[in-house]
Amino acid sequence: MAKQFTDSNFDADVLKSDKPVLVDFWAEWCGPCRMVGPIVDELSTEYDGKVVIGKLNVDENPEVAAKYNVRSIPTLLIFKNGELVDKQVGVVPKSTLAKKLDAQMA
Questions:
Q1: CA–CA separation, 86 vs 104, rounded Å?
Q2: Which residues are bridge partners to 79 per DSSP?
Q3: Which residue among 2, 22, 33, 101 is the active-site one?
Q4: How far is CA 91 from the centre of its chain?
Q5: For residues 1 and 24, what is the distance between their CA atoms, to the nearest angstrom?
Q6: Which residues are registered as beta bridge partners of 60?
Q7: pTM higher than 0.90
Q8: Which member of 3, 7, 9, 30 is catalytic?
Q9: Residue ranges per structural domain of the chain
Q10: Catalytic residue status for 30
Q11: Could you write out the three-class secondary structure of the chain?
Q12: Is 33 marked active-site?
């Protein structure tokens, strides 16, 4: 199951992670987010131990969303060594996200 990121745990769980991190920025009212959610959950199981995968509710955690200029959701950001290394806005197939994650593990 995907982790729950918040404004308060983001630095520790994302920026200080020793593994690549995928963050799904979403909100409950967002239809496309509900399409991406199950894909993110599947990836969190498949990449368990290799990549940290989680979700951040933009309505409940506006600070991080503002810091990274998240204007549309779903937005998926990939961090490595505390740096933003990749970004995907909108709904994409699971294979697209898997390729992005694989590129960060190489």
A1: 9
A2: 21, 84
A3: 33
A4: 13
A5: 13
A6: none
A7: yes
A8: 30
A9: 3-105
A10: yes
A11: CCEEECCCCHHHHHHCCCCCEEEEEECCCCHHHHHHHHHHHHHHHHCCCCCEEEEEECCCCHHHHHHCCCCCCCEEEEEECCEEEEEEECCCCHHHHHHHHHHHHC
A12: yes
Please write the tens of the pLDDT for every residue from 31-66: 999 999 999 999 999 999 999 999 999 999 999 999
Q: Tens of pLDDT along 54-104?
A: 999 999 999 999 999 999 999 999 999 999 999 999 999 999 999 999 999
Right CATH number for 3-105 from 3.30.420.40, 3.40.30.10, 2.60.40.740, 3.30.750.24?
Answer: 3.40.30.10
User: Would you state the structure tokens that stand for residue 13, as one six-digit string?
Assistant: 């769980």
Whether residue 90 contacts residue 96, with contact meaning beta carbons closer than 8 Å, is answered with no
C-alpha 53: how far from chain center: 6
Q: How far apart are CA 97 and CA 83, in angstroms?
A: 18
